[in-house]
Design brief:
Structural class: mainly alpha
Order of helices and strands: EEHHEEHHHHH
Distance between the termini: 59 Å
Number of helices: 7
Helix content: 40-55%
Strand order of the largest sheet: 1-2
Radius of gyration: 27 Å
Strand content: 5-15%
Length: 213
């Protein structure tokens, strides 16, 4: 044993016995503990690697479920933004929104997977307008233009899909976005003095799927 009292005692990383190390980098009290400690570290590393692989397998196996969850949460966030900013009428028919409020996509999800989660593409409508009304898109165009102006309407109509034309989201990106969206839902009430489009752009950036540098 090293009896040099100028060297501080350490607690063995394996058995937790106090000991005087022979050198400053020594972390265990003897050779036996060193072997056991090394084996313990190896098992922990293997478990960590397996946990990472298991999580990836789980994400991939439930990718469809996660896509649906993220879409539902994004739609909810879009509806919350509209309510927060005082838009309590349907983006189609201009009637007051009832209990069945949809996050209506300006550009349909089918054929536009690249912008299905983009908040600029989703606005609150009555369920009847979104699901059943054949004039849905015609009135949507009029109301968006009235609400946000011609510049935004032209951007939404002509540029949004092209801007994100090459977007493809991995299962991991979708999975990781879900808790971020839920946190934004909780934090929305703290945001003041910002208009609906500014909030949508800011949140798109925070969620990270449509991040602009």
């Amino acid at each position: 044993m090293n009896t040099n009292r100028n060297i501080k005692q350490k607690k063995c990383k394996y058995c937790e016995t106090l000991f005087y190390p022979f050198k400053t980098t020594q972390v265990v009290c003897n050779h036996h503990c060193a072997q056991l400690y090394a084996e313990e570290k190896r098992k922990k590393e293997e478990q960590k690697e397996w946990n990472i692989r298991k999580k990836k397998l789980s994400i991939d196996a439930h990718s469809k479920e996660h896509k649906t969850t993220l879409q539902n949460e994004i739609n909810k966030l879009a509806r919350m933004i509209d309510a927060h900013c005082g838009y309590n009428v349907c983006v189609d028919c201009d009637r007051v929104l009832d209990k069945q409020i949809h996050g209506a996509h300006y550009h349909n999800v089918k054929g536009n997977e690249n912008i299905r989660y983009n908040l600029l593409n989703i606005h609150s409508s009555r369920s009847e307008c979104n699901k059943y009304d054949s004039e849905h898109k015609a009135r949507y165009k009029v109301k968006i233009s009235e609400r946000y102006g011609e510049d935004f309407f032209n951007y939404l109509e002509n540029e949004l899909r092209l801007e994100y034309k090459e977007m493809h989201f991995s299962n991991k990106e979708i999975y990781n976005a879900i808790p971020i969206v839920r946190k934004l839902q909780r934090d929305l009430k703290t945001i003041a003095n910002k208009d609906s489009l500014s909030i949508r752009k800011m949140f798109n950036n925070i969620i990270g799927l449509y991040k602009k540098h």
